[in-house]
Design a protein that fits this description.
Elements lengths: L2 E3 L15 H11 L2 E3 L8 H6 L4 E3 L3 H11 L1 H12 L8 E2 L6 E2 L5 E5 L5 H12 L7 E3 L2 E2 L2 H14 L2 E5 H5 L10 E3 L6 E3 L1 E3 L4 E3 L1 H6 L2 E3 H6 L4 H4 L4 E4 L10 E5 H11 L3 H36 L6 H4 L4 H5 L5 H20 L4 H11 L8 H22 L1
Antiparallel strand pairs: 1-2, 3-7, 4-5, 6-9, 7-8, 10-11, 12-13, 14-16, 15-16
Helix pairs in contact: 12-16, 15-17, 16-17
InterPro entries: XPA_sf
């Protein structure tokens, strides 16, 4: 026979029936779970002990997770020891999720942060290494192969992002809703819902990913970088926040764009001079456009009084005022971005004369006073302050 069958009857019960061997196998098949001789898929621990089978191949995800956790137990223990320090350390640790005090006991758990949960690490290991852990021989809840245990431990050490939290946070809060995406931001260090950027291997919160770490391609070109200079930089594509119908925006790291501008311009004053030239050219184009729009609105008002002209709605005409209504997207991001820009302005070490010159350069790039334009003006002002500090390093 190729298989052994476990059932709830005593071992000699089927033999005492004096049935043919084929009939005994059929009865056992109907009463119990089949188990291959060289392993024990589907068998319970009690059945394995009864038949003396200590070595088996894992079939359930729980067996695989148990063996993998055993392989990385030393890393988890080392992380706990480093977090709590020596027994003489008086530092009090608290859970970043619940605020509870953390002590070195069972109520303190080591959580695998987003985006690499422990299950995703196991799946990634099997995909990258091309192995099937369900076929790996196990003994006593561990993989028999020492090389397999070491290989998984090394992979875990490279990709795992560990965080010390309370038991309630690990088993409840971080398992549902926004908790699944909650981790420590690599930029500001806060434990909040974050987004993972594969190209840069960083997790960033909303404020850092939109206003600190990245610059969009349009912003980089506004500062003087050309598409050819940006072509060699690493970027991450994301859906356009204004409209999903627009092409995906390309996000570059601020440090990379600053390095490109430092190579292109000898000093920050040279960068501001180039921006001033662009601002003057933009003002000339805007004046010609306003002149054309004004004449067109005058003709429309003369023929059909329904469309208000420049004298009724301002220099830009009625169709420009229709664009002034701020969308829900502008209202949502306006408060956060204004807070960031104001905080950046207050905490930078740029002299006041340089700040005044930056304001003069920024103003022509935004032609009306809607909330969206004011927010963008503050953002460009804050970005130039950061570039000024980058040039002076």
């Amino acid at each position: 026979m190729d298989s052994v069958y476990y059932c709830s009857l005593p071992p000699d019960a089927l033999q005492s029936l004096r049935l043919p061997e084929e009939d005994i196998a059929e009865v056992a098949r109907q009463l119990a779970t089949p188990v291959v001789k060289d392993g024990a898929p589907g068998a319970s621990k009690r059945q394995r002990r009864a038949h003396g089978q200590d070595e088996f191949c894992a079939t359930s995800p729980a067996d695989i997770r148990r063996a993998c956790r055993s392989a990385v137990s030393e890393q988890i223990q080392r992380f706990r020891e480093e977090a709590f320090g020596s027994p003489h350390t008086q530092e009090v640790l608290s859970c970043p999720i619940t605020g509870d005090k953390l002590v070195d006991d069972r109520l303190t758990h080591v959580h695998h942060q987003y985006p690499f949960s422990f299950c995703s690490i196991i799946d990634g290991f099997q995909t990258e290494r091309g192995v099937d852990l369900s076929e790996a021989p196990m003994t006593g809840g561990e993989f028999q192969s020492t090389s397999l245990r070491l290989e998984f431990a090394n992979y875990h050490g490279k990709v795992a992002r560990l965080l010390l939290v309370s038991r309630m946070a690990n088993q409840s809060i971080l398992k549902t809703g926004d908790g699944k995406n909650t981790c420590r931001c690599d930029e500001c260090g806060r434990v909040v819902p974050c987004e993972w950027f594969t190209q840069f291997q960083v997790a960033l919160c909303y404020v850092c990913r939109r206003y600190r770490h990245f610059l969009a391609k349009t912003e980089a070109m506004r500062l003087g970088a050309t598409p050819e200079e940006l072509r060699g930089l690493t970027f991450e594509e994301r859906a356009n926040p204004i409209s999903r119908n627009f092409p995906c925006m390309k996000l570059y790291r601020f440090a990379d764009v600053a390095a490109v501008l430092r190579l292109k311009y000898s000093s920050f004053d040279a960068l501001l001079a180039a921006l001033e030239c662009r601002a003057q050219a933009m003002q000339q184009r805007l004046a010609k456009k306003q002149q054309r729009d004004g004449q067109r609105h005058y003709d429309l008002r003369s023929s059909a009084r329904e469309v208000p002209g420049p004298s009724d709605t301002g220099e830009e005409g009625g169709h420009q005022n229709a664009l002034r209504g701020s969308s829900s997207h502008d209202a949502e991001e306006g408060h956060v971005e204004t807070m960031f820009a104001d905080d950046m302005v207050q905490n930078c070490n740029v002299p006041m004369p340089v700040r005044d010159r930056i304001k003069e350069v920024v103003a022509p790039f935004f032609r009306n006073e809607t909330k969206f334009r004011v927010v963008r003006q503050k953002r460009l002002f804050a970005v130039l302050l950061r570039l000024c500090m980058a040039f002076t390093k």
